[in-house]
Amino acid sequence: EAQVTQNPRYLITVTGKKLTVTCSQNMNHEYMSWYRQDPGLGLRQIYYSMNVEVTDKGDVPEGYKVSRKEKRNFPLILESPSPNQTSLYFCASSLSLFYEQYFGPGTRLTVT
Amino acid sequence: AQRVTQPEKLLSVFKGAPVELKCNYSYSGSPELFWYVQYSRQRLQLLLRHISRESIKGFTADLNKGETSFHLKKPFAQEEDSAMYYCALATSYDKVIFGPGTSLSVIP
Predict the structure, then answer these.
(1) Is residue A14 helix, strand or coil?
(2) Rounded distance between C-alpha atoms, residue B73 and residue A67, angstroms
(3) What is the DSSP string of A98-111?
(4) Could B96 and A97 be called an inter-chain contact, meaning their C-beta atoms sit closer than 8 Å?
(5) Nearest residue of B to residue A104 by CA position?
(6) Contact between chains at A42 and B43 (C-beta distance less than 8 A)
(7) Neighbours of A13 (CB within 10 A)
(8) Which is higher by pLDDT, B62 or A26?
(9) Which of A55, B20, B73, B104 is the most buried (most CB within 10 A)?
């Protein structure tokens, strides 16, 4: 089944404790992206990747890192999480920027 | 700066009534616009792309470059249309910009 998976689905952590949210797709898509969803703000792009080893900042990249060492995986790294990073995070992939994006199920992160 | 606005946070309509969800964009290039929908407890999914000009689940959207709008319309709302709707813009700067979303509630 073609899909985007994210893990974990729920995470509660403390300020400053490094964490990684994994994202994987099995559709051989080149474009992958991370978003955060906050009430009243919609989805805001954190980072995106056009292809392996090519990543770039979205609109809200501060406090986040990503890597794209393999085409299928695009992990989101929070080196030192802070409470303002409490949010719902979505990973998405698509053939290219101008095609339909397929979304993961979301990861709800709480930083205390 | 590129921007997508959806002026209505909440929209309530009666079943069978027409519905229009507004989307306006700010972008100097040639826009690629999408509507995504998120039903309760489900993932975001594509509803339609302007370039394909398809009608999905009875919804249509027309790009109006003069008014920089891409409003979503359906002539007769159904209860199953209740969901969160997002307008999105793909730019030549490789970014995708989403609007803040409109929550549609269809009243039986």
Answers:
(1) coil
(2) 39
(3) TSPPEE---EEEEE
(4) yes
(5) B43
(6) no
(7) 16
(8) A26
(9) B104
Q: Which two tokens stand for residue B55?
A: 């009608």
pLDDT in tens, A54-110: 999 999 999 999 999 999 999 999 999 999 999 999 999 999 888 899 999 999 999
Buried b (16+ CB within 10 A) or exposed e, B20-39: ebbbbbebeeebbbbbbbbe
Closest CA to A91 of A99, A81, A102: A102
- Please, which residues have CB within 8 angstroms of residue A30's CB and are 6 or more apart in sequence? A50, A51, A71, A95, A96
| SS3 state of residue B65 | coil
Interchain CB contact of B86 with A (< 8 Å):
yes
Task: Please give the sequence-ordered ranges of beta strands (E in DSSP) within A1-112, or none if there are none.
Answer: 4-7, 10-13, 19-25, 31-38, 42-51, 54-57, 65-66, 76-78, 87-94, 102-103, 107-111
Q: What is the largest CA-CA distance in chain B?
A: 43
Among the listed residues B108, B107, B77, the one whose alpha carbon sits nearest the alpha carbon of residue B12:
B107
Question: Would you give the end-to-end CA distance of chain A in angstroms?
Answer: 36
Q: Identify the DSSP state of B64.
A: B
Q: Which tokens in the block code for residue A10?
A: 């729920």
